Amino acid sequence: MQICYPTSNSTCPAQYTVWGTYDTSNPASNGTAVMTNVNNSNDIISAENFQFRSDGIWIAQFAGLTAGCTYHVDASYVSNGTTIAAPQVTNVLVSDDVVIPVPPPPEGA
Question: CA-to-CA distance for 66 and 42, rounded, in angstroms?
């Protein structure tokens, strides 16, 4: 599992779609993505609407992040009873004026 957006030492808006890749050869369930404020470990935001696409892309939506704060991003899913975690994305600054890359469109779209 990988997190493709955001990347370490990048920026994101207070509301955006986090996305990445996963191995479609294994069943995927119980996806989670969280952002933890670097300076306040009690400020943890969980993503909503986590989805696995059949083309190996996963997506989820974040909202309510605090502009000007820096977060770490963690994501994982469960496959055959084993938790598969993406490498942590570090030092993502929340900014109101960020252009974000969207996930690739589904195959055939």
Answer: 13
Q: Which residues contact 99 (CB under 8 A, 6 or more apart)?
A: none
Report, in angstroms and rounded to the nearest whole number, the Rg of the chain calculated over CA atoms. Answer: 14
- Does residue 34 contact residue 41 with C-beta atoms inside 8 Å? no
Burial of 53 (0-12, 13-18, 19+ CB in 10 A): middle
- What digits encode the pLDDT tens for the residues 7-33? 999 999 999 999 999 999 989 999 999
Q: 2-5 and 29-37: which strand pairing?
A: unpaired
